[in-house]
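Subject: sequence -> structure tokens, single chain

Hey, anyone have a minute? Need the predicted structure for the following. Not urgent.
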Amino acid sequence: MPNPYYVGGPVPLKYFFGRGSEITTAFDQISKRAHLAIYGSPGMGKSSLLKYLAAPEVWQKRGKDIEKVFIVLISCAGISPFTASGFWREILSRLHDEADGDEALRNDIELLLNEQKIEKGDLRRILKKIGQQDKFLLLLLDDYDAALRTNDQYTEAEMLTFLSEFRDLAVHSNEGRYLSTIVTTFRRLNELGPTIAPGGSPWYNHYLFRLLRPLTIEEVSSQLFIPISGLFRAGVLKIIDGHPALLQNAGYLLYETLQAGKTPDIDTFTRDFQSATEQYFRDTWRFSTDEEQILLMLIALCNLQGRLNRNTRYALGDVDLVFSQRSRELVDLEERGVIQHILDEGKRVYSFTSSMMEWWVIQEIQNSNEEKLLARERVFLNLMSREQVQKIQQAIRWLWQNKDIVQSAIFAIIRQFFVAPA
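Reply:
Had a minute. Here:
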């Protein structure tokens, strides 16, 4: 029997589960020819959701007329380097393929594709022809972050022009009646892209925003149908903590082990799981702001300090004061499923939702050096006093000097979930 878990990209239709609320919202926006912006952490299932929404079987299951829509699914990261003309060209090229059997529309698109440069107006004319057929175009744009970053061939001015033109096409043109768009990004659109001039109209305010949160414990439990013992299962569930990509990787590894006639053990599983999933945590770190990275480091240092012997602890100073002054960034990290908090005597105590992310942040701290630490000083000073910065810097240097002690504590972070109920 093939492995029932899927890793290495957007999951095929038969592996997809959950996300009922998000799917309902997406089809509601599509039915109104409106626009949806979905954002969430790496591996949260954004690409898989778009692939699911593009499937004809899904439309038929929901009683939707698939014959009335042209669906174009593209990854903006695949347009390299990203440019406005390249974006419009990619859409028309995919639409040409999608319009198989409609020779008149294909011929019109071919004429445009032969042009050296393609503009918004070209797609507008094609939308008009689509509307004349009583049909509409659904654009599913994955990795839309790529459209919100400059490159050598895509200046900030060109970016602002593109985004304004895209909004005009979707909202203000008559042909917008024949267009619905769903985009996915790592962060909210208003946190990305060019700065809006005073008095200017936001290029993103025609979207309905939806955060793709971690799966519920019920959804994860229903999909982790591997026959493993209670404590081992509880530990795996805690490490996954609602993250779809982590669930698929954990299930894949455990199923593979059982199929080989072996009994899963904690050490082998955690080692293989770390190796298989490290990219998700690296990307979460990479896409976080400088301030968010510092906050993640502080949470990791606080939690690690609590696991050390009293004789080997380092001083951190009043970190709670820093947290109280950075509630917006902490809320954003919580919304994205990176951290969580509990109230302890009225005080917010933060921790990582996945012990693997905590492990990765500590590794990031350990793998830094004096040069990198000093380069971060400006960001530290934006968050705290110079005296507090010096204490944090000394704590980080302590980690460098006591790697064996820290490595033992890191392993305990993960192993604890397998020796007691989570």
